[in-house]
Amino acid sequence: MITTDRDQVIKRLQLSPAAVEKLDRYVELLEAEQTKMNLVGPSTLPAVWTRHILDSAQLFSLFLPSDHVILDLGSGAGFPALVLAAMDTDRKYVFHLVESDGKKSAFLNKVIKICDLNAEVHNQRIEQMKLLNVDLVTARALAPLDKLIKYAFPFLQTKVRCLFMKGVKAEEELTQALKKYRFNVQKIQSISSDEGTILLLSGVKKK
User: Fold this and answer.
1) Would the pTM of this model clear 0.90, i.e. be above it?
2) What phi-psi label fits residue 195: left (phi over 0), alpha (psi between -120 and 50 degrees) or beta?
3) pLDDT of 18-50, one tens digit each?
4) What span, in angstroms and rounded, lies between the C-alpha atoms of 139 and 114?
């Protein structure tokens, strides 16, 4: 598989050689496993560096120094968590990935081992997760915002923030979520898609 957007993404993100090495290996593993199971939309694979790597990587600049423990909900093929872990060559953060599908969890563990990432996979449903003291919750293409907040709510201590990656329905989902919850929200334009928005939530409380 030829990913023609690779060099442009590496340059745009100013990735270190160590991060590039890990991401190259991750993409190789993804392409190999994609022939056995549906990890990403087949049409997105030729543009994997833009559609998945760049899209996920943009969250890294939104991390705070205090964001030591990151919980990624419904991790699937590892986006965004494993991209972010690959970029974290200084191992400042630990990533907890929740994925209920056994085959996908096995793939995630394989990537973590081969790429030497500071991450742990929880092969279970989000509702069954033991409570962790987390600093940040992430999710990409998992569920509508009100449902994401419901999943994340048990982990949302006072200063915990959420970075949820959304598409064209971001405003509609915000309207629905605000019927059930109160929160501060910052809308950040995606750098990988004109239709994408990152919703940064803080101070989430039930109404």
Assistant:
1) yes
2) alpha
3) 999 999 999 999 999 888 887 877 767 777 999
4) 23
Mapped onto helix, strand or coil, the DSSP state of residue 187 is strand
Supply 179's token pair: 């019927």
User: Could you tell me where the beta strands, DSSP code E, fall in 62-191?
Assistant: 69-73, 94-98, 119-122, 136-140, 161-166, 181-189
- Summarize pLDDT for 63-72 with one digit per residue, the tens: 999 999 999 9
Query: Domain spanning 6-206: which CATH class is it, in words?
Result: alpha beta
- Considering only CA atoms, which of 37, 54, 68, 142 is closest in space to residue 98? 142
Beta-carbon contacts of residue 71 (< 8 Å; ≥ 6 apart):
96, 98, 132, 134, 136, 137, 138, 152, 155
Number of residues that this document lists for the chain: 207
Whole-angstrom Cα distance, residue 33 to residue 115? Answer: 15
Residues 6+ apart with CB under 8 A from 99: 74, 75, 76, 105, 108, 121, 122, 123
CB neighbours of residue 22 within 10 Å: 24
Contact 190, 169 (CB under 8 A): no
**DSSP bridge pairs for 122:** 98
Q: Residue 201: which H helix or E strand, with range?
A: strand 197-206
**Angle between the 170-177 and 145-152 helix axes, to the nearest 10 degrees?**
50
